[in-house]
Amino acid sequence: ADMNGTAIENFVCVIFNVSFMNCTWHVGRTATEDTQYFLYWRPPKKKDITECQNYIKDDYGRHTGCRFQNVITGNWYAYFLVNGSRSGQSLLLIKSISDYIIVEKLTPPLNVSVNCTEASHRCSIWWQPPRTSTKKKSSCFKYEIVIESK
């Protein structure tokens, strides 16, 4: 239920440094300063639903995001739920986030090695894929190499 424009909008989660995740949203278009939002989530393969423990707040103290630690998503889906209150009264604002976006900011590739030979004027470069929160195949990654001459 949207409760006349009080439901959250633009829900996005970003995973960084492999196991940290920030989820953010915009307050509803008609939400008043005393509207409060609460995020619940169920990690993949878990049965327990937990509320956010580390909220991100706007200038009015409204929850507009959550910081998670030790996140493991694997190749499974996590489930999110946001509900709210206004003036201490529970709103019938229950929004199950099914069309959410999870983006992962990757770390640089690991164990980069370079071997250049002057005779052939060639260099060979090796590396390992970055660590990720999911199990991705090496073929999922595309790399760009920038060579600068000194």
TrEMBL record:
Membrane topology annotation: Single-pass type I membrane protein
Gene3D superfamilies, sorted: Immunoglobulins
InterPro entries tied to this protein: FN3_sf, Ig-like_fold, Short_hematopoietin_rcpt_2_CS, TypeI_recpt_CBD
Pfam families: IL6Ra-bind
A single MF term (Gene Ontology): cytokine receptor activity
Compartments reported by the entry: Membrane
Alphabetic keyword roster: Glycoprotein, Membrane, Receptor, Signal, Transmembrane, Transmembrane helix
Domain Type I cytokine receptor cytokine-binding, chain residue ranges per copy: 11-87
GO cellular component, one term: external side of plasma membrane
Name listed for the protein in its UniProt record: CSF2R factor
Organism (species): Zosterops hypoxanthus
